[in-house]
């Protein structure tokens, strides 16, 4: 199988670690932006920013069904390459990808790199919306992040959190260490 580059892994991590920054100071519950009396700038509340991110990213997130389980992935490009975790596709010979619009397509495994827990599937589907990737070099401890995926086949699940560490090596129980 082909090796997925570490740079691809950083790009995927950047997608799933979407930072929400700037203009987060308003505590208003109104949906309409209002100018700040102090600065004159329009401020948007945090909820509106979350909704905007979910609406922008969700069409690029897919659910993956394999012969052995379920997982999530992200549309990497309009040619049908989908990045997921190697553990999602491990041990399976069949893959089905479910898009956010409800359509599903058979997929083939292009490659996997177990050491970084990355894999790439390929689907032949029209009108794919590729993810827009951020720069993971800008992530800092304390950055507000969102994760959009399809755990347990629940397409379009959303959660948030705060980055607690960067550059940390993670070791899994099976002995695989995911490098920082």
Structural account:
- The protein is an alpha+beta fold.
- It has 3 helices and 12 strands.
- The protein has helices at residues 6-16, 46-57, 86-89; strands at 34-35, 42-43, 61-66, 70-75, 81-84, 95-98, 104-113, 118-123, 144-149, 157-162, 170-171, 177-178.
- The strands form 4 sheets. The chain has a 6-stranded antiparallel beta barrel. It has a two-stranded antiparallel sheet with strand order 1-2. The protein has a two-stranded antiparallel sheet with strand order 9-10.
- The model is unreliable at 1-30 (pLDDT under 50).
Q: How are the SSEs ordered, and which strands pair?
A:
Layout: H1 6-16, E1 34-35, E2 42-43, H2 46-57, E3 61-66, E4 70-75, E5 81-84, H3 86-89, E6 95-98, E7 104-113, E8 118-123, E9 144-149, E10 157-162, E11 170-171, E12 177-178
Brief digest:
The chain has 180 residues and is of the alpha+beta class. The protein has helices at residues 6-16, 46-57, 86-89, and strands spanning 34-35, 42-43, 61-66, 70-75, 81-84, 95-98, 104-113, 118-123, 144-149, 157-162, 170-171, 177-178. The protein is 15% helix and 31% strand.
Shape: globular
What summary fits the major beta sheet? Answer: 6 strands, antiparallel, barrel
Evaluate the radius of gyration: 18 Å
Written as H for each helix and E for each strand, in order along the chain, the element string is: HEEHEEEHEEEEEEE
Average of pLDDT: 80
Structural class: alpha+beta
- Estimate the strand proportion: 25-35%
Which blocks of ≥5 consecutive residues have pLDDT under 50?
1-30
Q: How many individual β-strands?
A: 12
Number of helices: 3
Helix fraction bin: 10-25%
Query: Order of strands in the sheet with the most strands?
Result: 3-4-5-8-7-6
Intertermini distance: 23 Å
